Amino acid sequence: MVTSIELRNINKSFGRKVILRDASLTLVPGKTQVILGQSGSGKSVLLKCILGLLPMDKGEILVNGKSLSKLKASEREALLGKFSMLFQAGALFDSLSVWQNVAFVPLNHGGMDAAAARRLAISKLEMVGLGAEVADQNPAELSGGMRKRVALARAICTDPEVIFYDEPTTGLDPVTSDVISNLINKLQDELKCTSVVITHDMACAFKVADRMAFLYDGHFLAEGSPEDFRTSKNAHLQQFIAGRAEGPIKVLA
Are residues 142 and 216 in the same domain? Predict the structure, then answer.
């Protein structure tokens, strides 16, 4: 079953600072949804609300048509267990080897024995273009691009139905960024999951997106296909895509 997610009128503030205001978006199951927005626009806050890491002030999140806020704790945990995430900085454990990082969930929460977990980890590493020779290395021994791949292998280790990518190309050079974008597309084709990519990297965005949405001033100002975004007459969206300082968008304080 491919997981569907619908966001209805999500509101979130921190004190007097409003981050999200009636943000609504329906993710197309089995497709890659890119969410664009300035740094500080609320993209990561929205992601944390979806994952249950932050409580919403108002609104509703439906997974497979079921409101997360109305589910029992066990039911909610089961639904969220279908999700996985690639963190912006990788979030690898320096004290663990590469394979232990990749198989962290099966090892520590699934009761899998070490030998089976290592075999699983190596198979996932191969899916992201890394060989078995890196399995026993420490994350500190790897390049930034390789660490990102290890983090991606960990994200797919549980065969998730939904993968969230938080700024997957941040801190990478253009060539390595393109490699990561290609991997996102490859995994999407192989896993047939629903992918959500949060980014302000336009090259990555247009390469991986089936659908795009632009978060601005706390809500989604535009939503559509990549071609819709390329041809949009919306001044805010075109300024953002072009990366121009001049226009209606002002630098966030």
Answer: no
